[in-house]
Design goal:
This protein has a three-stranded antiparallel sheet with strand order 1-3-2. By secondary structure, the protein is mostly helical. The protein is 49% helix and 9% strand. It has a domain of 73 residues. The protein has five helices and three strands, in the order H-H-E-H-H-E-E-H. The protein is elongated. Helix 3 packs across helix 4. The N and C termini lie far apart (46 Å).
């Protein structure tokens, strides 16, 4: 979750630099503001491809390709991919659990 806080700080620094592919009519709110506004409605606010890719430290197009293949939990709304922060966190934790291997494997010849 520290990555999400860092993402919020970067967003605050780049308020006016919203890309043309994202909704230009909505103001760019900090992640914390978006989460609290959605929490009052009981709905978790979705992350854009750019926001989710910053959390995962990958390029947004790579993340969108992974979403298209079903490798990462995502939702397509119109022509845009959206991601739940909690689903991404659970996905990361599941990937970490799957990749745990012993440091040294015993072999017998």
């Amino acid at each position: 979750m520290a990555q999400i806080v860092a993402l919020e700080e970067r967003q605050a620094a780049t308020v006016g630099n919203q890309s043309a592919t994202e909704s230009p009519t909505l103001p760019l709110l900090s992640l914390k503001e978006r989460q609290t506004s959605g929490a009052s409605l009981g709905i978790e606010v979705l992350l854009t491809s750019r926001e989710a890719s910053e959390v995962l430290k990958i390029h947004p197009k790579v993340l969108e390709r992974m979403a298209k293949r079903g490798e990462v939990p995502a939702l397509k709304v119109g022509k845009f991919w959206r991601y739940r922060a909690t689903a991404l966190d659970a996905w990361i934790n599941s990937r970490l659990q799957l990749s745990r291997q012993p440091c040294r494997m015993d072999t017998s010849f």
